[in-house]
Specification:
With 354 residues, this protein is of the alpha/beta class. 31% of the residues lie in helices and 18% in strands.
């Protein structure tokens, strides 16, 4: 068996996936794929479980913009044993909620031994706005992206090698959309705006960054969907972000790659929901003939292999357990057609005579 079989796992943010549409509910699939591949690259939407997290040296925690650039061969990943995680707080966060986030940082320092700091408030409120497109996908915007980037630069210049961002998000505790989400349907209304924030910082600073929203705790709901429970356990969503960033790989220019860095050319497979095949990372992998495993994982998107005309260029899997089995087969050198029924015949070529 190959020592490792580098695999990319993508569950896009804010599209309401049945697996990965909540905080941390794609983690069991990620753990299984990490075990099958020995080397899994994935992004915060997969790994973040609010107050819950899972640390695994076989899993690389890479923000979505950086992950797309990695898949395209424009960045390489360098393993990092320890990051110094700067904490960037939105000036709009009220003092009591700010103190809760600082206590999370101190708790992670004291109990997990993480290197966190410095801490910086933005000079003005970031002004987060939440939106939802006609397709149902969530997104958002910032009134003051300049304040976000200034604060990020100051933290980097002060010695932070990764940045955890906490922005104050609008309260919407009584909305029908939130109630539906807590009961197991609909789309995470926060996720799209979170992606905007982290993409901006990573693109600008070229260091690992991830986001946690600042919100008031919701009232108890005994009918809560189990997948939503992870988001109800604490006052903040910050612990998983600090843990994930603490060992996130550095983002390196290809010209500076050294032995031990992970390059896109080393990828063996990418695992992605069947309806979400139109993303940059997946298309880059298709161009490089990396095996794409499309898992049945319904969402509001319908960008399927059929819609894109990909035919047999995509391998289908009914579950993440099946996808892990396919990854393990490839790692072992087992040809995937040998696992299919009906068993395909040999390709027979002929040479045309003059």
């Amino acid at each position: 068996m190959a020592a490792v079989f580098p695999t990319l796992m993508i569950v896009p943010t804010g599209i309401g996936c049945q697996f990965g549409g909540y905080a941390g509910d794609a983690l069991p699939g990620a753990r299984l794929l990490a075990a099958a591949s020995g080397c899994l690259v994935t992004h915060p939407n997969v790994m973040n479980g609010a107050a819950l997290y899972w640390s695994d040296e076989r899993i690389s925690y890479v923000e979505g913009w950086g992950l797309d650039r990695f898949a395209a061969g424009q960045l390489v990943l360098r393993p990092r044993h320890r990051q110094r995680v700067g904490l960037l707080l939105d000036a709009a966060i009220e003092p009591s909620l700010r103190d809760r986030h600082l206590q999370v940082a101190d708790a992670c320092r004291a109990t997990l031994g993480l290197d966190i700091g410095p801490v910086l408030n933005t000079d003005v409120a970031l002004g987060v706005t939440l939106c939802q497109g006609d397709s149902g996908v969530s997104w958002g915007s910032l009134e003051r992206p300049d304040a976000l980037l200034r604060a990020g630069e100051k933290l980097r210049d002060a010695g932070a090698t990764a940045i955890a961002v906490v922005a104050r998000f609008p309260e919407d505790s009584g909305s029908e959309a939130l109630q539906a989400y807590r009961h197991g349907s609909g789309v995470d209304a926060l996720a799209g705006a979170e992606a905007v924030i982290s993409h901006l910082l990573v693109r600008h600073l070229q260091i690992p960054c991830a986001h946690a929203p600042a919100l008031s705790p919701l009232p108890l709901d005994p009918q809560l969907d189990p997948r939503a429970a992870g988001e109800e356990l604490a006052h903040t969503f910050l612990p998983c972000v600090l843990v994930g960033l603490s060992r996130a790989p550095d983002l390196i220019q290809p010209a500076s790659a050294v032995p031990g860095d992970l390059l896109a050319s080393g990828l063996g497979a990418v695992v992605v929901p069947e309806g979400a095949l139109g993303g940059e990372a997946v298309l880059a992998c298709l161009e490089r003939n990396v095996t794409v495993i499309a898992v049945t994982n319904p969402s509001v998107l319908q960008v399927s292999s059929h819609a894109l005309g990909l035919g047999d260029r995509v391998v289908s899997a009914a579950t993440y357990a099946e996808a892990a089995g396919l990854v393990l087969a490839m790692r072992e050198g087992v040809a995937l057609p040998s696992l299919q029924r009906p068993f395909p015949g040999l390709d027979v070529l002929t040479i045309a005579r003059d």
